[in-house]
Amino acid sequence: MLHFFFLKKYVGSALYRSGRILCTICILCIGLSCPANAHATSPPDTIGSPGTAWIRLSKDGRHFVQGRAGQPFVIWGVNYDRDNGGRLLEDYWLQEWNTVAEDFGEIKQLGANVVRIHLQFGKFMRASGQPDTIALRQLSRLLRLAEKTGLYLDITGLGNYHKQDVPEWFGKMGEADRWKAQAAFWKAVAGVCAQSPAVFCYDLMNEPLWPSSKKETEWLAGELAGKYYCQRITLDLGKRAPEQVAKTWIHTLVSAIRTADSRHLITLGAIPMAQYFPGAGLTFCSPEVAKELDFISVHFYPDGKDVAGQIRILKTYDIGKPLLIEEMFPLKCNIDTLNAFVEASRTVAAGWIGFYWGTRPDEYPKDMAGALIRSWLAYFRQKAADITGSANPGSGG
C-alpha cells in the first residue's frame, strides 16, 4: 500500500527525501492540509445496471468479461481504504452510513466502475471460528449499496492496518492456527457475498510477505503513519521453500472461500518485487504459486524516469492471466508521466485502480497538497470514459 516502506528502505534516501515524495507522504498517509470529511452525516436483475451483470474471465482466461453476452470489462477503479482523516471503513460505517453512501455516489460520478475496500480481520472475527454478525450484516448492506450505485467491489481481507485493533488471541497464534483463523474469516465473508453480482473479486490479503532467511518475530510490517499495510504469512520458513509455503497458504484460503462461493474471482494484492530489486523473482505472482488465483494483481507506482523500463518490468508479471494494477498513483511521477504509463500498459493490463479518500476535488484546500489531489481526481475523471468505454453497461447476470 503506497510503497513508502520499500522506497525508504531500498530505493534510496535521496529519492525518498525528495520534495515530491515528502509532499505525497503528507497527503496520502497523514492527511496534512486535508479537510475533514464534509459529508459526516437483494436487487432485481435489471439490465442496464453494472452491478447486476456478473464479472468472469473470458474464454481464453486473459481478460474480464461482463454478463451473459461476455462484453469486455476493463477495470477503472479506486481504493477506498480510508477517509482523509485516516479512519478505516469499519471505524465509521456503522455510525456514518450516509458518508459511505455519498462517497460511493461521488466515486461513481468520477467514472469508476470498481471500488476496492479493505476489511480488517479484528472487526470481523470475535474468536478464531466466530465471525462478528454485526460486521457481516454491514458488509451485506454495503453490497446492496454497490448494487444500487452500479459499482463492483474488490473485497480485500485480513487487514490489520491498525495494530491496536488486532485481537490479542490472534496475535499469539502460531502459523497453523493463524491460517485456520484467516480461512474462517474468508469463509464467513464469502458466505455473505456469494449471491451478489456486485462482487468483482476477493483479494486474499494486501501485500503479504514471507521472511527471506532469518526467523521473524512480528507478523506485521510496513508501518507508515500508524498503519501496517503488510503482513507475513509465516515467521519461520525453516527448511521449507518460500514458494511452497505461499502456495499452501493460498490453497488454504481459496479452499475456504470455495466452500461458500464457487463463482467469484480470487486474487492477491502483491508488491512487484522486480520493480525494487532488478532480477527478483515473481514470488506470489509466479505461475506455480498463483496457480489457484484467477488473476494477478500488482501494486505498481511508476517511476517517471523510465516509462519503457517500467513497462518491461510490468510485463514480467504477465503469466497468461489477467493482470490488474490494483494500486497506482503519481507517487514518483507527475500526471503526464502516469498517463504515459497507463497508455503504454494498455497492451498488458486488464485494469487500473487508484485512490479516493471521501473528499470531492472542490473540497481540498488551494495549496500544493490540495492541488496534487485535485489534479489526480481530474485526470481520473477525464480518463474514465476512454478506459471503460463510457459506462460498461450491464447485460444481465
Overall description:
With 397 residues, the chain is an alpha/beta fold. It has one domain (4-42, 51-388): Glycosidases (TIM Barrel, Alpha-Beta Barrel). Helices cover 37% and strands 19% of the residues. It has 14 helices and 16 strands. It has helices spanning 4-11, 13-16, 19-30, 89-92, 97-109, 121-124, 133-149, 168-171, 175-193, 242-258, 273-276, 307-315, 335-345, 368-388; strands at residues 55-57, 64-66, 71-72, 75-79, 114-120, 125-127, 130-131, 152-159, 199-206, 208-209, 220-224, 227-232, 265-270, 296-299, 323-327, 351-355. Strands 4-5-8-9-13-14-15-16 form an 8-stranded parallel beta barrel, surrounded by 4 helices. A 3-stranded antiparallel beta sheet has the order 1-2-3, with no helix packed on it. Strands 10-12-11 form a 3-stranded mixed beta sheet. Strand 11 and strand 12 form a beta hairpin. The protein is globular. The protein starts with a helix and ends in a 9-residue tail after the last helix. Residues 1-38 form the signal peptide. Residues 93-305 form the Glycoside hydrolase family domain. InterPro entries: GH, Glyco_hydro_5, Glycosyl_hydrolase_5. This is Cellulase family glycosylhydrolase. Keywords: Carbohydrate metabolism, Cellulose degradation, Glycosidase, Hydrolase, Polysaccharide degradation, Signal.
